Amino acid sequence: MTTPTLWLRANRDRSVKRHHPWIFSGGVARVDGNPGPGDTVLVKAADSTALGWAAYSPASQIRARMWTFEPDEEVDAEFVAGRVAAAAARRAPLLGSGLTDSARLVFSEADGVPGLVADRYGDTVVCQLTTAGADAWREVLAGTLAALPGVACVYERSDADVREREGLGQRVGLLRGQVPSSDLVAHEAGFRFAVDVAGGHKTGFYLDQRDARAAVASWAAGRRVLNVFGYTGAFSVIAASRGAASVTTIDSSGPALSIAARNGGLNGVDVGELVEADAFAALRGLRDRARQYDLILLDPPKLANTEAQVDKASRAYKDLNLLAVKLLAPGGVLMTWSCSGAMPMELFQKVVAGAALDARRAVRIIGRLHQPADHPVPLAFPEAEYLKGLVLHAD
Ligand code: SAH
């Protein structure tokens, strides 16, 4: 039997040799052995040097994703399970710290398991498979996650649009164990946040804003807080419980705001005003009424999915940040984020600087926020970095 082999074009082996996991279709000279979607292929340079093994994605522009850069390693069930277990083990310090019972266990390429995101909330693991390679190993992935100590349930939320780029349909449902409880809660820093496993965004809760939640906790006391794109109100609950003077949450999703109200109850606080509205329109309305806030949190959804969308996204970020800066009271603080991987930090900062200039406010960076430790960024794979935030002070 011939080993399915992906041959790189001449001079297209540099990034693989630097342990970057993606092989784009343009770099592929030919594929031997007729591999199917998700099959493991041997990757060879044009000079026949074996570079490692990859998961083949015939429908995707990212034609293959490296499993290993060791040609002698075998990519079998034990290998895949080992990668998942090792990733989960790296979260042990976080999960054992007493801070939280919820963390991202596996972050795709950043943990050597391309296409698998697995988030743990207490005894429940919610996973998302986004590539042909991950799809091919679904049973092994599910079994390994289910076997982790204390895990009672593995639920799949493979309903992300990115699956289309891999030629995959959507899959949602229980993989292992019992159906997750409808009152599943993530515990973090003494707070309790409802997790909507079946209906929420992504896997149900934004674990990636953990460090931001700590920042909000430290800034909220005595401030009039405006939480824009508030989702289920995690920032709002924290602000309210830390003695904010007032809290207003804006989101276009009614169901998310219902959970925000529930989160208020779960934490014994009045979560404040919940406004179901388009954020752009709502911010304009607040500006027209000359409202002022001392702490504004601006956490929009991913506005640029690809590099082609960065220009358009920049204009949207500019609009939002201009409106937010105008709403800041003297001495106010704005925390503003971009979760678009395609948007580089330097560009985001420039866009926000343009907004401050147009608002005629002197604004200083007093802090920066990033995705937390359970969303790591391999040095060889900077693309894993997607979430960046600025903490800004306005005179
Ligand atoms: N800050 C939140 C996460 C925000 S996710 C947290 O820490 O949990 C982005 C949110 O923006 C989602 O809740 C989504 O419903 C909302 N959203 C998307 N487009 C919107 C729009 N145009 N106006 C208001 N909210 C919007």
Average pLDDT, to the nearest integer? 97
Number of domains: 3
Q: Kindly, what is the distance between the CA atoms of the first and last residues, rounded to a whole number of angstroms?
A: 71 Å
Helix/sheet category: alpha/beta
The tally of helices reads 12
Q: Strand share of the residues?
A: 25-35%
Radius of gyration: 22 Å
Strand order of the largest sheet: 16-15-14-17-18-20-19
Helix content range: 25-40%
Number of strands: 20
Ligands bound here?
S-adenosyl-L-homocysteine
The shape, in one word, is globular
Please give the CATH class of the largest domain. Answer: Alpha Beta
How would you characterize this protein structure?
With 395 residues, this protein is an alpha/beta fold. It has 3 domains: 5-68, Archaeosine Trna-guanine Transglycosylase, Chain: A, domain 4 (Roll), CATH 2.30.130; 77-177, 2-Layer Sandwich (Transcription Regulator spoIIAA); 206-394, Rossmann fold. The protein has helices spanning 14-17, 77-90, 92-95, 132-136, 138-146, 162-165, 210-219, 234-241, 254-266, 279-288, 310-327, 345-358, and strands at residues 5-8, 22-24, 28-32, 40-44, 50-56, 62-68, 102-107, 116-121, 124-129, 153-158, 171-177, 185-188, 191-194, 224-228, 246-251, 273-276, 293-298, 328-338, 363-370, 388-394. A hairpin with a 2-residue loop joins β8 and β9. The longest helix has 18 residues, at 310-327. The chain starts with a strand and ends with a strand. S-adenosyl-L-homocysteine binds at residues 201, 206, 209, 229-232, 234-235, 250-253, 256, 278-279, 299, 301.
